Structure formats: structure tokens, C-alpha cells
Amino acid sequence: MHTRKMRENVVKRLLMFIWVFTLTTISTTLFAQDNNTPAKKIEGMVTNDKGEPVIGAAIKDRIHKLNAVTDVNGKFTIEAKSDRIGRNR
Known about the structure:
Blueprint (H helix, E strand, L loop, with lengths): L1 H30 L8 E6 L12 E4 L4 E4 L5 E6 L4 E3 L2
Antiparallel strand pairs: 1-4, 2-3, 2-5
């Protein structure tokens, strides 16, 4: 009797492991980023409320972890592989 319960527990754990492994594999495949996405050259200028250039503002591609910083004229260029460019305030 005791051996039967142990065997049932082992089978349950094995099935749970297979289930979790399958879900992890499927989700990783579905949400994987396409590394073959061509980079886009994004150029711009950061200004404050008065229209003056902001020096040293950070521009980030959050997904691919690429960064750019504005120059003394507030201008920047970044090669981004994503449309998800955000502002760092």
C-alpha cells in the first residue's frame, strides 16, 4: 500500500514536471525576439518646454538595451531594433 502511494506521487510529480517544461518551452518560443530584425536609424532632438536643447538626455531601446545620449545641441542618433523607444525622465 505504501509503495503504491509513493509510485502515484512519483507519477504526479513527473507529469507536473512535463507540464511545466512544455509550457515553458511553448512560451519561450512564442515570445522570443527576432534577432534578424533590421536596425532602424532613429535621429531626433530633445528639447525642454521652452524649446531649448537638452544636453545629456538618455534615449533607450529597452528591449535590446541600446542607449544614446544627446549632444550639446540636444541631437541624438540611435540604431534601434525596436519601435519601443522611451523617454528617460
